Amino acid sequence: MADLILIDYGSGNLHSAERALKTAALDCARDISITVSDDAEKVRAADRIVLPGVGHFADCARGLFARQGLVEAMTEAVQRRGIPFLGICVGLQLLATRGLEDGVTAGLDWIGGEVDRIQPGPGLKVPHMGWNGLNIRRAHPVLQGLGEDPHVYFTHSYSFRADDEASVLATTDYGEPLVAAIGRDNLVATQFHPEKSQRVGLRLLSNFLEWDPS
Predict the structure, then answer these.
(1) Number of structural domains, the chain?
(2) Which whole number is the average pLDDT over 22-41?
(3) What is the distance between the alpha carbons of residues 202 and 204, in angstroms, rounded to a whole number?
């Protein structure tokens, strides 16, 4: 049985994400143990990691880095062992070099870029909240089979700005193209919430559980 750790660092849609992952595991008939934890040793030994996140970049970063040994364990599992990793919402943003919400806050710097406030077109509000279309820019196993016109659920005021456009897997239109998904090597992350995105979100989570980036 494979072990998936859903990281608990005090900020995240943990219960609905856990339920959605368990449903996705049943849908794809994967024998996966899903555990919510901030235990560094469990994270270090994990077969897959999901990093959720809701709210303020700086608060989430402080919560993550404050957990003793957690970032080091994530780095060992993801960066050195190469296990599959999924970030969700602020879990995507934390992969950036820095966030610019109320000052400059360092992120994990796993995918180069910064997180800045959305600048919507006329008549569009911030936060960007609700269902919006997903424009897949680069084929990726985790984004396959989502349908011809997939719509997913967003709630965010800040958006990832990539240093390298090759890391952008998908965008959504909100007056300007906003990054909706990023990926590199064994990392993939979504700005939207797959656990709130019904059929499309469950398919994405099933894809992640079956994904072998090695």
Answers:
(1) 1
(2) 93
(3) 5
Q: How many helices (H) and strands (E) does the chain have?
A: 6, 14
Structural contact between residues 194 and 188, judged by C-beta atoms closer than 8 angstroms: no
Tokens 């990793």: give the residue: 85
195 noted as active-site residue = yes
Q: Which of 56, 60, 89, 156 is catalytic?
A: 89
- pLDDT for position 11: 83
Q: How far apart are CA 169 and CA 190, in angstroms?
A: 9
pLDDT over 80 at 12, yes or no: no
89 is catalytic: yes
> Would you call 56 a catalytic residue per the annotation?
no
Q: Give the active site residue among 18, 101, 114, 195.
A: 195
What's the pTM? 0.96
> What are 31's two structure tokens?
């024998």
From 56, 128, 151, 193, active-site residue: 193
Q: How far apart are CA 96 and CA 103, in angstroms?
A: 15
Domain around 206: 2-210
Task: Please report, for the domain that includes residue 131, its CATH number.
Answer: 3.40.50.880
